[in-house]
What does this fold into?
Amino acid sequence: MKMITAVRGFKDILTDQVDTWLRIETESRELFTAFGFEEIRTPILEKTELFTRGIGESTDIVEKEMYTFLDRSDEQVTLRPEATASIIRAYIEHHLYAANPITKLFTIGPMFRRERPQKGRLRQFHQINVEVLGIEDPRMDAELLFMLKELFAKLGVANLRLYINSLGCPRCRPRFREAILVFLKDKEEILCDDCRRRLKKNPLRVFDCKIAECQAVITDGPELLDFLCADCIDHFDNLQHYLNILSISYEINKKMVRGLDYYTKTTFEIIAPSAGAQNAVAGGGRYDGLVELLGGPDIPGIGFAIGCERLIASLPSMKEIQSAGKLQLFVAAMGEKAELFAYTLVNRLRISGISAEMDLGGKGLKGQMKRADKLRSGHVLIIGERELTDRKVVLRNMRTGSQRTLDIGNLEASVINAMKER
Ligand code: HAM
It folds into this structure.
């Protein structure tokens, strides 16, 4: 029979990688909780309109990358390409703003974009996503970046660069739009079909085009930072002031527009320069009009998303952590009586939270030790007839090589204590 493979751009996360995934998720949860965030989980499938309205009709995501289909009752639905729109939908639908004027949420999970798969680019990928609603103050923008930086530091990721920009607000955009249109007036033929079409709807998207000719044209084009209104200039200056106060280094990238339409004022990306073409590990920004655009009250917001696969690719070698293994104790038993003793011990230890294993396949001592080795067990306990008679067993720490003799009478408690020691 022909083998069935996974869908292109969709990847299995195999058992040997799960530790790394758990580690980044646990570190994130702990840190976000300390900063006052709470976890939310929204559905993976949403009505298509949520994303066309939220992300913007002329974005690459909405125009080309969404997994959209009619379900059996002819409703148009989409696998979420990002989490922000879904979180805001839930925030509005459940009136979360009424209970708490400042809402800090995070979510971790899969997103779907039908892009061309390549290194660092998948069709199902995962994001760690954070959103703050109800605060306009640039201190919040800087604080989020501080938290993000701290997460990368905790995970041991080095050599990242933070790029910031301001995309202004609906007050500064029209003048900028005019300036782009004037600049591109006699250059339209050089642009790709997409850009020519977008020029009418949303000229900002030309900055986002991946085609080299369009990029070359727009390089000398006007920059939004030169068109900011007094309010936005003030916000951007203050953001930089607080980034300096929090000792966060950054560079301004005037050309960075981000691929989603909802951004206002602060935008940012974290880049791993050594990661190749797909080097943005995280991205985000402020979206002060999005809640209203999605049918809610006028509430400002800001957030970011980290790409988990790209984050994992930039982690330092996990060898040391992996070599520790997950199994805490392997009990090698020789003879029927010892096996029965080990059988109860292993199962009792497991319900006390100790990961313990033994052989149920009739292997000799050598074979059992080999298995303990393969499982990278932290400790080994050897029980034979003699140990049962002497009422003493030896617990060996496989990493340090040290041994200790334990009394069989209260073996379970002694093993639990020994496992707690590092
Ligand atoms: P984004 O820049 O589209 O922003 O995605 C954030 C991160 O997700 C990227 O920096 C990248 O690491 C990862 N990513 C995106 N597409 C792929 C892909 N095809 N394969 C692998 N990784 C990918 C957002 O999604 C916004 N919702 C972020 C945000 C939250 N803004 C405000 N709040």
About this structure: The pocket of histidyl-adenosine monophosphate is lined by residues 82-84, 113, 115, 121-122, 125, 127, 129, 131, 259-260, 280-285, 303-305, 307, 309-310 (CB under 6 Å). The mean pLDDT is 93. The two ends are 50 Å apart (CA to CA).
